[in-house]
Specification:
The structure holds 2 protein chains of 2 kinds. Chain A is of the alpha/beta class. Chain A has helices spanning 7-13, 19-31, 50-60, 64-67, 91-103, 117-122, 125-132, 189-192, 199-203, 214-230, 267-277, 286-293, and strands at residues 2-5, 41-46, 73-78, 108-113, 135-139, 146-150, 159-163, 171-175, 235-240, 243-244, 255-256, 260-264, 305-310. Chain A has a 9-stranded mixed sheet, with helices on both faces. In chain A, strands 6-7 form a two-stranded antiparallel sheet. In chain A, a hairpin with an 8-residue loop joins strand 6 (146-150) and strand 7 (159-163). In chain A, helix 5 packs parallel to helix 7 and helix 10 (214-230) packs across helix 12. Chain B is 29% helix and 28% strand. In chain B, a hairpin with a 2-residue loop joins strand 12 and strand 13. The chains are: A alpha/beta, B alpha+beta.
């Protein structure tokens, strides 16, 4: 079922009531238990059947039951930023994640987004939601639908504005596609969480009179890191099957085809791995470097348990 | 961002007349005129419009290209229209027409978006066809077509739609004069990129600073053995002198570049973070940056640019 939700609908459902008071608890609940293993495990499924590759990646990362339990309410955050090839999460990957959530007995599975329904239709992701019978909850870009979340440790961003509906869920599965980004060279699991933050708040990630100088990029990437301090997915499943390595994030651009899906809890390790897929040095990607320095994960892939395998 | 072209005084009427008469678009004046460039149903046999066109003006581009509009704005963006087309066999193509502020802006964003490895086809003032998409520029317009698969019927349709648009865009212009600053010998023509700001430069050769990089325009081209040349134009010799002083102070003071220990270099020479050599030379309004795998390649390319 697809529904675009406006301010009135949100208030009517009562989902907004008392949310601010419950924020702290809800935030950690939605963040999931997701204990970070030491060292973290990154699962990589490989192969031309991207659904199978996704299943393999999640199995290698520990299996869906480690991240999602019976009765869990699951929010899914796919990337539908553009409909051009290699710029959005593949439908096959979404289908597999939904199937595995169902298999472990998730009580509720919904995709959340403030992108328009046309994006979901054109990318084929809406068809997956419809076929699998899971919710596609689309929200207007209305600030009333987003709730303030303080970021005490934020260096650039002191307050996020997170989609309020997110707090109705127990777990978040972050499902970006990794790809080029003209501004800061890379997008992956860290940056994808901007899809939960309000567009207006996201705009503050870009300093006024943006000139793309190092200070501008540092501010943008620090804001991304700050956002990641308060939203912690239970699982990240990154589409690295076919993605653009030029003209990002919108495309069209040159497509690189590693045919990989990457899964795990350590966003820094995952993004470091994905960046290295097309020759980027993780330490050169400011958001990955800062996230590592600020305790969000490991940038050194030698310290990560990397499990790569083809599906069978 | 309002249209100020020759049709600006009566855009709706003129657009209507243009559409009715099947006339060509020769000057910017408004969205309606941009819409008139879109091929109508049947203009390309077997293909028809799929849905209504979307239009974005000025800052609204951010709502269409969420997170990626900055590069268009850096070059100088006015407005765009996007229209999908579908074939009777169910193939889909997306057409985007960007109206930029100047022909140089259109040329620049075209060079930024092309891979330099695509197939050249005779459309517009410059065209590259990639596996599943095509970019060309003409006058102040950048035209991007994206096929949602790379099959022959889709690419044939994509080319046909592109051709129909090309016929309606008659405004012409050549590449900016600065492109001629790249020595022709050894230059890979499709590698040329024309830049208007730091975002474009960062995607080609990041200096990790803004100091000394407030150039008016720049151009980059690839040469043999991985060497490439960047020519930065600051508008005046005084501005160039000041810029180089700032940039050189950064190069000497930071940890991104190291002064090369090469005996008797003709130009200041540095080693970047990837071990490449960068030679710098000054001439008139321009700062030359020649990058190569070794000191000789970098210095030699800088010398050619000065000549």
């Amino acid at each position: 079922m697809t529904r675009t939700i406006g301010r009135r609908d949100f208030i009517k459902t009562g989902a907004g009531a008392g949310l601010t008071l419950a924020m702290g608890k809800a935030l950690f609940a939605a963040s999931g238990a997701a204990p970070m293993t030491k060292p973290p495990v990154v699962g990589v499924g490989i192969g031309e059947d991207y659904g199978q590759a996704a299943g393999k990646a999640i199995a290698l990362a520990g299996g869906m039951k480690v991240f999602i339990q019976k009765g869990t309410k699951v929010a899914l955050l796919a990337n539908v930023q553009s409909r051009h090839p290699g710029t959005h999460t593949k439908p096959e990957v979404l289908r597999t994640v939904i199937g595995l959530c169902k298999k472990v007995g998730a009580a509720r599975i919904d995709c959340l987004s403030w992108q328009p329904v046309k994006q979901w239709e054109d990318t084929g992701l809406k068809a997956v939601c419809d076929a699998e019978g899971v919710g596609l909850r689309l929200f207007e870009k209305d600030e009333a639908l987003f709730k303030p979340v303080p970021i005490p440790k934020g260096l650039a961003l002191k307050e996020a504005r997170i989609l309020a509906a997110y707090f109705e869920y127990d777990r978040l599965i972050n499902m970006p596609i990794t790809k080029d980004h003209a501004g800061n060279k890379f997008t992956g699991s860290l940056k994808n969480l901007m899809g939960l933050n309000s567009p207006e708040n996201n705009r503050t990630f870009h300093k006024a009179n943006w000139k793309t100088d190092p200070d501008d990029i540092a501010h943008l990437d620090q804001s991304i890191v700050d956002l990641n301090q308060v939203v912690k997915p239970a699982l990240n499943v990154v589409d690295a099957t076919e993605f653009i390595v030029s003209n990002g994030p919108f495309g069209p651009g040159q497509i690189f085809t590693p045919q990989k899906v990457v899964a795990g809890t350590d966003r820094v390790a995952i993004d470091a791995y994905c960046a290295s897929l097309w020759g980027l040095k993780p330490a050169d990607i400011v958001q990955i470097k800062k996230a590592s320095e600020q305790g969000l994960g490991l940038i050194d892939l030698d310290k990560v348990v990397l499990k790569e395998d083809y599906y069978y | 961002m309002s249209g100020t072209g020759r049709w600006g005084s009566a855009p709706a009427l003129i657009a209507l007349l243009l559409a009715a008469a099947g006339m060509v678009l020769t000057a910017g004046g408004g969205q309606d005129e941009l819409l008139s460039v879109l091929p109508a149903d049947g203009a390309v046999p077997g293909w028809s419009r799929d849905g209504a066109p979307q239009e974005f003006v000025g800052e609204d581009l951010y709502t269409y290209i969420d997170g990626g509009a900055e590069i268009y704005q850096e070059y100088g963006f006015r407005r765009m229209v996007v229209q999908d087309y579908q074939s009777s066999a169910g193939r889909s193509v997306s057409l985007e027409i960007f109206e930029m502020a100047t022909p140089a802006a259109a040329y620049g964003i075209y060079t930024f978006k092309r891979s330099g490895q695509g197939r050249i086809v005779p459309l517009g003032s410059g065209t590259e066809l990639e596996d599943y998409y095509l970019n060309y520029w003409k006058g102040r317009f950048l035209v991007t077509l994206t096929g949602f698969d790379a099959t022959t019927p889709t690419i044939d349709g994509l080319l046909a739609v592109a051709g129909a648009v090309d016929k309606k865009l008659t405004e012409g212009a050549g590449a900016p004069d600065l492109v001629a600053a790249l020595p022709g010998e050894g230059l890979r023509p499709q590698s040329v990129k024309y830049l208007k700001g730091l975002l474009g430069l960062n995607n080609i050769y990041p200096f990790y600073t803004a100091r000394g990089l407030a150039f008016a325009e720049a151009v980059k081209g690839d040469y043999e053995e991985g060497a490439f040349l960047i020519v930065l134009d600051y508008g005046s010799p005084e501005a160039r002198v000041k810029a180089w002083a700032e940039l050189e102070a950064f190069l000497q003071g930071g940890d991104r570049f190291k002064k090369a220990e090469v005996r008797g270099p003709a130009f200041p020479l540095y080693v970047d973070g990837k071990g490449r050599y960068a030679a710098f030379a000054e001439t008139g309004n321009r700062l030359i940056v020649a990058v190569g795998p070794g000191p000789d390649a970098a210095v030699g390319l800088a010398a050619r640019a000065i000549r």
